[in-house]
Amino acid sequence: MRTVLAAIFGALALAACAGADDAPGESEDEIARRTRRYVDVSAEAPMTGVPRDKILRALVKIDRVARESRDPLRRALAAETLARIEGGDVLLGSIQAARGIDRWHMCKDEKAKACDGPPPASDDRAWTGDAALARTLEEDLAGYQWGNRIYFTISSATDVNELAATLVHEVNHVANRSECSYYRAIDAHVVEPDRAYVEEHRAFLAECLFGDEAATVASCSRYAASRVDEYGFDAKLSRVLPGGSNDPAKLAELVVAAEPNGDAPFGRLVPRKRDWPRSFGACR
Ligand SMILES: [Zn+2]
Question: Among the residues of the chain, which ranges form H helices?
């Protein structure tokens, strides 16, 4: 599923402050990053340099929210997102290094020629496509999620706080296997608009509640609705919400009301291990 990363304006000035720590030459920032971890999708071509550094900084940010927020839901979102990433339940990688079924789905979303015809197996990790696809992905795609794999194109312009919020958004998709509800015909990428709306609204709700200490369910529901509108789904919530409601705020209320133990017909907000999908094979 395509990730729409907001346009990134300006460069984030990161002060490299040398703290009065015990390891001479190592700043507090560096120590914080060194203690964070993630598992790369690609053992052959893992992220290095700037992309790896930005991911680690984003994890530091998520850890800080998990420890310091005054809001229990915000702390849970941060702590469980971090735990799924650091525990390897979710894998992170670069779009350039993506292979196999994930790259094929990226190709399908880009409507590129290389993926005309039937898909490779759901566990294929070798399919590469052609040079035209490589160019298209490099120019066009900022992020992608399929199964438990999340891919990014990260540059020196990438804002670390925005990346942290995007990780919360994408891990929410993984926890709910969004790609399995998103499409009416998965191999042709024909979107099911009502369910796709629900999947995106919930992921943006999670991202928003994580991103701002002052956020409320109501303000984040408005944020989520405006972001999902950018996708242009021809959705009608009345076809899925109880009582024929068309109000996205109702959807947000139901998603939050299901935390932490209630029935969750519209999916889980917090990506807890106990609710985690048993496998990430073909959708059924
Ligand atoms: Zn999304």
Answer: 28-34, 49-68, 72-86, 100-109, 131-140, 160-175, 179-182, 193-211, 217-229, 248-257
What is the torsion angle, in degrees rounded to the nearest 10, for the CA atoms of residue 254, residue 274, residue 160 and residue 40?
-140
Regions of the chain where pLDDT drops below 70: 2-24
CA–centroid distance, 3 to ligand 1, in Å, is: 5
Token readout for 257 is 């009301």
Interval between CA 266 and ligand 1 midpoint (Å): 15
Q: How far apart are CA 267 and CA 262, in angstroms?
A: 10
Four-CA torsion 100, 146, 95, 125, nearest 10 degrees:
-20
User: Which two three-digit tokens encode residue 81?
Assistant: 């997102």
Per-residue pLDDT at 140: 87
Per domain, the residue ranges of the chain are 1-19+28-160+170-175, 180-269
The Å distance, Cα 93 to ligand 1 centre, comes to 17
pLDDT in tens, 182-224: 999 998 889 999 999 999 999 999 999 999 999 999 999 999 9
Residue 192 near residue 182 (C-beta atoms within 8 A): yes
**How far apart are the CA of 17 and the centre of ligand 1, in A?**
35
